[in-house]
Amino acid sequence: MDRTNEPAPPVSRLRIGSAPDSWGVWFPEDPHQVGWDRFLDEVAEAGYTWIELGPYGYLPTDPVRLRDETARRGLSVSAGTVFTGLHRGEAVWEETWAHVAKVAELTRAAGAGYVVAIPAFWRDDKTGRVLEDRELTPAAWRDLSRLTERLALRVREEYGLRTVVHPHADTHVDTEEHVVRLLDTTDPDLVELCLDTGHYAYCGGDSVRLVETYGERLGYLHLKQVDPEVLARVRAEDLPFGPAVAQGVMCEPPLGVPALEPVLAATRPLGIDLFAIVEQDMYPCPPDRPLPVARRTRALLESYLNG
């Protein structure tokens, strides 16, 4: 069949941004972190125009002040982030919703369109203390799927936001098997995927294959890489995520895996608007480290998109 005159497939439009995580920010307040005003100044100086809110309470929570502080630096907000433990069932629903509603309200007020939902850790990310079993029971999986759908529906109905689930190291949604299980047991009209390339590689997943197989579920991207040598040591010692990050398991692109250019290329046939947020875990880190890394990473990603 002659396809010479057929139109080219649509190309996804990627909006490149960054996040407080790339400035070593994990908590609303912490003496090891840079102040929020310095983060906003430097993320704009690095050339980004999109940011995430990071942990609730790090950036100003007054909507008017938040809009003023971001707008005067030429920044827009793409998403807010929540941690959830929905596999624990109805007992945690009201507490979970109270937190999500607070974040969703600020997210909407900031003009963003997404809530990034991260499952709860099964072990403490600092101390490594085991909090619950690494594997969920069938009943817990049913609760996780059912309540994730409920959460996404309520977020959409009450705040007009889309919910994207973020697979994460040391949570119950981490490996390819677990990610696919959640996707296969939730409504695609409600629950979308935030693919974090670093966390997925950390847990043994292939980001390109996931995009090619479940591209219709992809709603959001976090871009990061892992250092294979550090990751091998982390796995051998079964280190928790926090100490692994402190040892440099997440590294500056293009020094690690997965290669980001093929991941971005895999999104092209999807023909969708897609945020691609750089989120390089660096907690704790020297305060002068993030800005040069952010500049180089942005230039690298622009070369992939414009090359």
Strand content: 15-25%
Gyration radius (Cα, Å) is 19 Å
> What is the H-and-E element order?
EHEHEHEHEHEHHEEHHEHEH
Our count of helices gives 11
Summarize the main sheet. 8 strands, parallel
Helix/strand/pairing category: alpha/beta
What is the rounded distance between the termini? 31 Å
Shape assignment: globular
Mean pLDDT level: 95
The percentage helix is 25-40%
Poorly predicted parts: none
* Number of beta strands: 10
What features would you describe in this structure?
It is built from eleven helices and ten strands. The protein is globular and about 50 Å long. It starts with 12 loop residues before the first strand and ends with a helix. The strands form two sheets. Strands 1-10-7-6-5-4-3-2 form an eight-stranded parallel β-sheet. The chain has a two-stranded antiparallel ribbon with strand order 8-9. The model has no long low-confidence stretch (mean pLDDT 95). It is an alpha/beta fold and 307 residues long. The chain has helices at residues 36-45, 63-71, 93-109, 138-159, 176-184, 197-202, 207-214, 228-237, 241-246, 260-267, 290-306, and strands spanning 13-18, 50-52, 76-84, 114-119, 162-165, 191-196, 218-223, 225-226, 250-251, 273-278. β5 (162-165), α5 and β6 form a beta-alpha-beta unit.
